[in-house]
Design a protein that fits this description.
36% helix, four-stranded mixed β-sheet, alpha+beta, 13 helices
């Protein structure tokens, strides 16, 4: 039961119905919301923090909507939130607080510090920028960094991470016996492994898996062509943004231009969009196909706006392989063995809820320039792979 007789929402809804259910299309709507305080720290478990949700309307006015907004915790075992937006610290840790109101979303992070009596930061060498970022977070939550791992642990970890194989026993013995400075010999090992034949093979396999290089979809020749293209990209150290841009904009025969196979495997605009956002942005755009995402900022409208960028991808049989097909079952038609991928001048996505054609639109903006005169795939590829796109950087 959402509301009962005598409650404010019930009385409001009843009065609206009694007044004739009048619709005022000119009334100001919510443009955005914000949640306060930003990234608060609750010192001890059991303590409370009142969250506030402020809505900014299209007419510029700002209103406190905390009582009407939905305010939720991502980890209720760390932080609980009441219907009134009152956060209670349950145990040490951190949780995201998400506020929702009339289709607008905002989030912040709450840290429950807990009893840290006796804590004192110990200065630790920083070997690179990642160390700096990690230590900044550790200082914020008052945690001391772990000690440096031993040489035998390090060589096993770095081999598994970079080449997907454990080191040979003689390599471990030689590395442990090396008496040079730890940082020097570890950096040297990393430099030797990065770009090695084993490294190239490992990351080729990983990207072939992520890009669904499969004979079921591409046939023997098509699968090998796509895999070899990936291998060459890894071996030549193709910049990641260039790699992604090339895959997303690939056109022509999927044999002559193998990255076009991406669109032979993924054929529906919504399915292609879901795969692309998860793979290159680490964002799940699938829950919001049928409704606004319950725990993230993404809306149902954004799903269809983003899917529209793939609505004009065309496919036709390659003439030199006419009549040759792949797949096909009692319920599924076979497909041409080799296809030519191209950009059509027409093609749209229809919103499931409204039944209206949905134009392409990005779910968030950044400073990277996107040419509006380019094809939809070109626009999307530049937007995704821009150095200004924070999700692209974080997902990699």
């Amino acid at each position: 039961v959402v509301t009962r007789p005598g409650e404010p929402y019930y009385d409001l809804l009843r009065a609206w119905i009694a007044d004739g259910v009048e619709l005022d299309t000119l009334s100001a709507r919510v443009a955005s919301i914000d949640v306060f305080p930003k990234n608060p720290v609750i010192p001890l478990t059991g303590m409370k923090q009142q969250m506030a949700v402020l809505a900014t309307y299209t007419d510029g006015s700002v209103r406190d909507v905390t009582a009407d907004a939905f305010v939720e915790s991502s980890l209720t075992e760390k932080v609980e939130v009441s219907k009134q937006g009152l956060a209670t610290a349950v145990r040490r840790g951190e949780a995201a607080i998400l506020a929702r109101y009339e289709g607008a979303y905002a989030a912040t992070t709450v840290i429950v510090m807990g009893d840290r009596n006796g804590y004192q930061w110990q200065e630790t060498p920083e070997n690179n920028h990642i160390d700096t970022l990690v230590y900044n977070k550790l200082k914020k939550v008052k945690i001391l960094p772990s000690g440096l791992c031993g040489d035998s642990d390090f060589i096993r970890r770095v081999y598994l991470d970079l080449v997907g194989l454990p080191p040979q026993p003689e390599e471990v013995r030689a590395f442990v016996a090396d008496t040079r400075d730890t940082r020097i010999k570890r950096d040297e090992l990393i430099d030797r492994l990065v770009g090695s034949p084993e490294f190239v093979e490992h990351w080729t396999n990983k990207w072939a898996d992520l890009l669904q290089v499969n004979r079921k979809f591409l046939g023997e020749e098509g699968a090998w062509a796509f895999r070899n293209w990936i291998r060459q990209a890894v071996a030549s150290n193709m910049p990641y943004d260039e790699f992604v841009h090339t895959v997303l904009t690939a056109s022509g025969s999927n044999l002559e231009n193998p990255p076009a196979s991406y669109y032979k495997v993924l054929r529906d605009p919504g399915e292609t969009m879901e795969n692309t956002t998860q793979l290159f942005l680490a964002v799940r755009f699938n829950c919001n196909k049928c409704h606004d995402h319950p725990f993230e900022r993404w809306t149902q409208d954004q799903y269809y706006h983003l899917a529209a960028y793939f609505a004009q991808v065309g496919r036709k049989e390659a003439p030199s392989y006419a009549g040759k097909v792949i797949g096909g079952t009692a319920v599924e038609q076979p497909l041409p063995l080799v296809e030519i991928v191209y950009d059509r001048r027409a093609g749209d996505v229809t919103h499931e809820r409204t039944g209206q054609v949905t134009p392409p639109e990005f779910p968030y903006t950044h400073a990277g320039e996107v040419p509006s005169e380019a094809s939809r795939r070109e626009q999307l590829a530049r937007w995704i792979a821009s150095k200004e796109n924070q999700y692209f950087a974080k997902s990699y």
